Amino acid sequence: MQELFTILFLVGFIAFFIFFILTVLAVRKKTGKAKLRSILTGVFLVMCCVGLYGIPIPVESPTNAGNEQSTVVDQEENQPPLFNMTTDEFKNAFNSIVGKYRLNDLGITKLDITESQETDTSTFNYNFTNELSMVGVLSPDKKIQEMMLIGTGGFGEKTGATLMTAMATLIMTSNSEYTYNDAQDVIKDMGLLNSDIDLNDFDGATVRNGYKYRYKIQDNNISTFGITAAK
Fold this sequence. Notes:
This protein is of the alpha+beta class. The chain has helices at 2-29, 34-54, 65-75, 87-100, 158-174, 180-189, and strands at residues 112-116, 121-127, 132-138, 144-152, 201-208, 211-218, 222-229.
């Protein structure tokens, strides 16, 4: 079963990335294929998210037993507001944090929403830069269901710093009482700040307040940070 979810994630992610680029190109060139490609982009995003959720997190060493116990406690707490937000509410909350911490480069102007009647789902996306984008899935009642940041260009480059800041902003958006230091603690729990991190192949996750935060690096080029409901 793990292999099936892994295949779903890889196929979904690769196809999503390709069709996302094709959709952007179609919109710019006005070829008339943008609508179909955007629908396919949403379908492959859902496939990618299903595969990502189904891949189990590696078991941590005994030295992290304290963190595991804390994770169990966190799962029992009430889920914060993020997954009860509409896209407009999310944008306002996100931009409020951007303004508070003066993260001007991360302000969201408008989220592009794509409706898919075939799969009865809605997706949204936003490009912060050419190397950093955000995608998400909406529930049938138009509330945020899950979301992901996608960064390209290598974690060690400028993209890595921007991605880390965007991750912290999303974490604070999902936990309205969190400060920037709290967000950094979440990133630290995922193992991303360890000195021996492998920038070519990394997969770390943690659970806080009903949310599963997961960060992955593939081939020191593509980085993804996802937020889903912990179950």
